Amino acid sequence: MQNILDSVDPFIGTMATDLPPAQGLAATWWWPKAQVGNTHPGASYPLGMVSACAYSGAYPTGYGVYRISTEGQPTQLYERNQASGFTHFQQSGTGAIRKYYNYFRVTPMIEPLDALGTLWQLHDEVAEPGYYAATLDTGVRCELTVGAKTAVHRYTFPESRSARVVVDFSYGGLAIEHGRTVPLRAHMQSLGRGQAEGTLVMEGVPLSVFIEADTPDWRQLLWYDRRLVDGGTRLDFDYIRRTTLRPFGLILMGPAAAGQTIELKMGFSLRGTEQARANLEDELGLGRTRFDKCRSRTRKKWSSYFDQVKVDGGTDARRTVFATSLYHSLIKPCFADDESPFWPTSGPFVFDICTMWDIYKTQIPLITALAPKRGSALLESLIRVCEEEGNFPIGYRMAKGADRFFRQGSALAHTALADGYLLGLDGIDWDWALVHMQDDLRRVYGEDFLEKDIAHPITHTLDLAYGYHCTAVIARGLGDRRLADELEQRARHWVNAFEPETGLLKKSTYYEGGRWNYSFRLLHDMAARIALAGGDDRFVAMLDAFFGFGQPPVRQLGTPPFADEYRAGAALHRFEGLNNEPDMEAPWAYHYAGRPDRTAEIVQAALTYQFAPTPGGLPGNDDSGALSSWYVWASLGLFPVAGQNLFLVNAPAFATASLEIGGNEFLIETIGHRETPMSCEAGTPPAPQFVQSATFNGKPLDGGFITGNELHGGGRLQLELGPEPSAWATKLRPPSVSDRTER
């Protein structure tokens, strides 16, 4: 098995969805959410603090050509890829977020300073993990690479009497309506000899930079309101309003011979310019050109993650999408150790958790598997946020304030904490974690749940009941049986969210979804959930209707307006593919009803028709890697049931695969595996493959699941595949609280 790093294509997901027409089951699915991956091809460090990319100001990362788009095909802001410079701290795949970072815009120019902000067309774009390059209309070749807390720019100029590199300290956010971010306070200083530093307070957070440029013979000046500040070495702004903001920054200028290269190194910190300088020096050293060194080190870091995941078989297209999905899964969240601007002590600080609603089901389990220490750091950071702010965040930006995405869900951090506890992750004070988990369950929607045993919007009832269950798991493990029993009693109130007569959730308001797609959550008591719906047959019939079995193809939304089309699609109550977070786990609900063959059909249809190795190759927002991590797990034939230390088993997309987890190898082998092309490849649409029998470490695996401890401990999972459904995993179901099934 080979390292698949060279198969990564960072351009996947950067353009509007443009997949071949689906056939069969996948053609019956319908989704309203914006059909664009919202990824960017910029230079990123795995789980690092910095992402750097060409900046056009488009939605939502700053790269690309689109306006704000939340439904249907996105509308275009520009006709082509272009950029006014290169910015840092881009998001990756997020959805309805109107402003997100893009601070310290760096622009190479051969025009006067008045031309700053011009959008130049991008030519000959190249991207790979940790590296991005493009050529502007002006003939300047632009290259970017990043470290964990640093960025290095390299510009190759055409011959020019007055070449320039301009750093705009005042710019942030997006160039769309209501997308601009304005600094509240700022100071910057030109230190001479190519060095400068400064701090901005953006969205309540102090962001500092230390700059060192390889421009020994060029002039170095500050500028304000597009005018040079001759002789000035410092700018201070104690209070900035939108109405008083004038752009300001640093300019380096001088003659350039044809082919002359200039490097600009930047160190960042949330704790002041001295730490920004230390970060730059620690990662790259000062005083010499460092682009190639930084690029090489970041490439090696990416390779270390990709060395842990290997596959055999698969078509070129499938391997490219799989490799890129793994790459996208490891860009966010941002781990910035010892950088919290909100508390003074050292230790983990994690931001761009955007958001738990997106990433807790698939991405956090993947990060915890490939980087257990990072998984522990994430949990410790969440606990510290709860300690400081009084609640576990649903989302956590590099921003201060109440924008914490509470409408999306409740108590989602509890699932990751329960998994971390059961896996035995190191470095966490679990008694202290339990205190905060209990307190958090009583806040916001939790107050209604505590008093009335139900909360509205109704999905928060499911979240909170599940949160009580996850908290009970830790309480019981710590030996507090009385508390665990009390918590588990409240965890049973998930039933209050459902209508027994329909087996569906009650009518309510739903965040980016409806009662149908939220009704098939994988709860802690699926046995009781299926009984509430009327038993296996009725539950399967409901799932079959939701997934469109036996139904004709549907038509997807185009560009707005589409009122009639939207109403018609919503009335189908259909699976939204992988375009919406509540649907990600629904295919595996069949496992609990003894129909893993249905799971196999749906998952293979999704892997075949909803992804492609093209810029339009994602079916919707990647959402910080949530969608991509789903693809990784599904391709391996696994699905993590967050909060239950459980992985469901299905037919994989590759003949052989291996995961290295904490030094242990988990090997997935198949017998009778047949290569299945993706829809973007020529050939007959593939028939699904079904598990006929399975063994784990040589012993029969009669149920379609393994524990998280078994996965992390390493072992050999062998699956015999065939073209027809079998009796495998139809009798032994995944565990539920009410039946206490034991393997």
TrEMBL record:
One of its GO terms (cellular component) is cytosol. Residues 723-743 are annotated as: Disordered. One of its GO terms (biological process) is glycoprotein catabolic process. Residues 8-172 form the Glycosyl hydrolase family 92 N-terminal domain. GO terms for molecular function: carbohydrate binding; peptide-N4-(N-acetyl-beta-glucosaminyl)asparagine amidase activity. Residues 275-723 form the Glycosyl hydrolase family domain. SUPFAM superfamilies: Six-hairpin glycosidases. It holds the Pfam family Glyco_hydro_92. InterPro entries: 6-hairpin_glycosidase_sf, GH-type_carb-bd, GH92_a_mannosidase_put, GH92_N, Glyco_hydro_92, PNGase. It comes from the Bacteria. Keywords: Hydrolase. PANTHER family: PEPTIDE N-GLYCANASE PNGASE -RELATED, PUTATIVE-RELATED. This is Glycoside hydrolase. It comes from Jiangella rhizosphaerae. The lineage of its organism: Bacteria, Bacillati, Actinomycetota, Actinomycetes, Jiangellales.
